[in-house]
Amino acid sequence: MKLYKNNPMIDLKFLTTILFIMVITASCKKTKKDFEWPNGAKAAISLTYDDGLPSHINTVAPMLKRYHFKATFYPTLASPSLYNEMDKWKNLATEGHELGNHTVYHPCQKSKIGMEWVKDYHDLDNYTIEQISEEIKLAIENNILAFNIESEDELIRIQEIAKSLNKKASISIRVNPDVNANTHPYISTGLKENKFGVSEESALNLYKKAKTMDSILIKGIDCHIGSQITDLKPFEDSVKKLIALIDKLEIQGIKIKHMDIGGGIGISYEDEKTIAFDDYAKAVSSLTKGRDFKILLEPGRVIMADAGAILTKVEYVKKTQDKNFAIIDAAMNDLMRPSLYGSFHKILNASETAEKESVFDIVGPICETGDFIGKDRVISIEPDNILVIMDTGAYAMSMSSNYNSRPRLHELMIDKDKIHM
Fold this sequence. Notes:
The chain is an alpha/beta fold. It is built from 11 helices and 20 strands. It is elongated and about 75 Å long.
């Protein structure tokens, strides 16, 4: 077994009874120069547990000792049960190893060491609060436009942090208007059963409470009812409800300076009818005519989804009595949307082929039945063909992962005659 020095992180995985020590550097090469471990440690091991009890920790330490490998262990925040089994970690010291006093974030994500590890390992909730509080503090210090408040607890915490900084925090409250966006349930955010925002009645009470807080400035009202919306009516219904609430607030002496109506305009993935920008603008303008507040909107998918595409190679063509499969080198870790909620993306063949059209499932190589990009596609296809998965400029790279030990895609930005990696 080789001792790897000065590497940012080593994950331990068990395959059957064999211990493999793998150095995770392939997808985050920059971390070698900008990531340093505390206390001058020459090697560090991070153990994470998705399913709770760190049952194999007592196996790890003796095996490392057998190969004269001493390391500093840095627990990562994976689950509360990791902390509840703290005594297991202490056994590492008896094998000549050290237990680090920092919590480590994966360098591929943060490239930095987190805050001091909680002294009371049972107090995981308070640790999380400290982490989020640091983000709130940073936002207040940088004078962001407004915090979109989602609950009373969040409002109270922001008040406390702003007061401790001797500053005022600007807020708006996210209202859940109970409007059906007629989109996939996983990306519908404006119904009362969704976790987002607060009801109209609760919003009134929160605004009244915020008005009494000495470190809070009420600036706006916020709403976002979902994503991939192709009908104008849900937007109109939610704007009407926000305006009615603004009028009620004004009676209470609460002045709203901006109305954030969110985003959610959909695109045409499969030739579906979408919302024209002009129609959207006319509808919002008509409903807000004569009002003196600013209108904020948050277009995302609609301005970038069709600007991106994924190129992938056909590795194998597999034909069975029941199904034809084209196994490609892209997978669900590269484009999660089809697996997550059955989303459709057009798939084109950019290569010349003599094959006749047939019905194929376009699937990845991951050992998951849910690893597919498209099902029942009529296409001419053969090995080594290059396929183009369309409309992946939104929610592809941002939702991708290194699942199944797969590296992420290279992302190229093409600007006329220039290409940026």
